[in-house]
Amino acid sequence: MKSPSHRLGDLQLRILQSLWDRPDSSVAEVHAELKPERDLAYTTVATMLRKMETRGLVTHREEGRSFLYRALVAAEEVSRSVGQHLVDRLSAGSLTEAVSHLLTSREVSRDELDQLEKLIKEAKRRAQ
Amino acid sequence: MKSPSHRLGDLQLRILQSLWDRPDSSVAEVHAELKPERDLAYTTVATMLRKMETRGLVTHREEGRSFLYRALVAAEEVSRSVGQHLVDRLSAGSLTEAVSHLLTSREVSRDELDQLEKLIKEAKRRAQ
DNA sequence: GTGGCAATACTACCCGGGTAGTAGCTGCGT
DNA sequence: ACGCAGCTACTACCCGGGTAGTATTGCCAC
Lengths: 128, 128
Hints:
The structure is a homodimer.
Chain A: H1 10-21, E1 25-26, H2 27-34, H3 42-54, E2 58-63, E3 66-71, H4 75-91, H5 95-104, H6 110-127
Antiparallel strand pairs in A: 1-3, 2-3
Chain A binds a DNA duplex through helix 1 and helix 3.
């Protein structure tokens, strides 16, 4: 049950997000969804999906002449390992420092701060 | 003042951290510092430093027969862009979500939560 | 049944991080 | 004066993400 520290590139992560949103997407659908942000060739997406399948990140089933892809890794799981990796990289494991970096990394709206406060409180409640 | 979205590998980041800690380090010193965690060849570190110099991440001056290296990018700057990149990757820019992911990514001690709360409060004070 | 389209399969390439071996230089100790 | 130790320079390689062109397959319409 090792969680093999998913080392995902930007495109791979983006594709996963698309599949989490809309499971059983065809290559064409994923390609269409990514089109606005990244003008990739159709075959690029197809190739990436195939590569990701060999890595166990996604799987497919056939539907007529198309493949419908599904993510095999949970969003939770990936967020966790990506996040954990960042914390390690950035601050030798100090979560507080990491968050502190995030906070100074950009303009944070009052709204966001409120939400964050709520998050912390909730975590505290859960923790006790 | 361009912040060219530093795309740093793990090793590069680790080397920078070492240099932030101890500027004007020789290759030998950086190598020694990294030794316990990553048993790299001396030349590996030297090569990486040279590569990083061509990318403008570090610079060196000569001291006798050795090169003493200094980071050219600020810790702040790098933390920011690395953190920002994560937020973008993970949650399409939602900082709240990103932090939420970090919070669920591991056991968070009560202490850490307290610290975090303090962080938020401070940010709020600064924001108004 | 044949042309064409849409889909996948295969292959190749680039790039950059990471890793390290080997060659070449130089100053220091004896 | 000479050789060794230590240092940099050069070169090469692997690997994986990313990108895409070309080949092949198979279905559908007419």
